[in-house]
Amino acid sequence: MKTVFHKATERGHANHGWLDAHHSFSFAQWYDPEKVHFGALRVLNDDIISPGMGFGTHPHDNMEIVTIPLEGELKHKDSTGNEEIIREGEVQIMSAGSGIYHSEFNPNHDQHTNLLQIWVFPEKRNIEPRYDQKIFDQEGRHNQWQTVVSPDGEGALWINQKAYFNISNLEKGKNLNYEFRNPEQGGYLFVIDGSIEINGQKLGKRDAVGISETGQFEIKSLENSKLLLIEVPMMELA
């Protein structure tokens, strides 16, 4: 099993006043040649957006964009006519495909929004842009993996890539195994909250580890923990 450990304190950080952002991979003005991507996973941003603020209309193309609210709400509007609000417990996906414009704002004026925004390179380029969101039952992730994004359906949001997003709320003292759909793929495990141990390595809140060259691995929860595991093809950048 091959692992690469990313400490929370070593992420990129940019505080724009209205936006306080941490970057697990190189993004905008922050660049680390050792943290450009993990396989098809290109971006994992941990954003805190001030009340009433947000990202104005901007373009994307040929990227699969997944948004997971952790606190508060986010209002999305795009050039294909979608105008929605997503909340904690929901997951949103946008296949930018051949090109799309969208904006994202915190619609509340008395509460910040904290979200994870994740970009994955697509399997097929220039597809028709697509948007979807779904609320997931929290009990479905209690001491087990709940797949929220998948190319296979299975009650999850569809993605244009052989990628699987899995969330678990793992109680202290519990062990949880993960078996790769494809042993040639890798997994990026991000600790949203809590503390775990994997392969002798302890990880705390917002720490992450990339895992590859194995068919499965086991996690031990050292305290109540919330986990995000993203399985992706281990592609190289051209």
TrEMBL record:
Binds 1 Fe cation per subunit. Fe cation binds at H58, H60, H102, E104. Pfam families: Pirin, Pirin_C_2. Transmembrane segments: none annotated. Gene3D superfamilies: Jelly Rolls. It comes from the Bacteria. Signal peptide: none annotated. Residues 9-120 form the Pirin N-terminal domain. GO terms for molecular function: metal ion binding. Its cofactor is Fe cation. Residues 148-232 form the Quercetin 2,3-dioxygenase C-terminal cupin domain. The keyword Iron applies. Keywords: Iron, Metal-binding. InterPro entries: Pirin (IPR012093), Pirin_N_dom (IPR003829), Quercetinase_C (IPR041602), RmlC-like_jellyroll (IPR014710), RmlC_Cupin_sf (IPR011051). The keyword Kinase does not apply. Belongs to the pirin family. This is Pirin family protein.
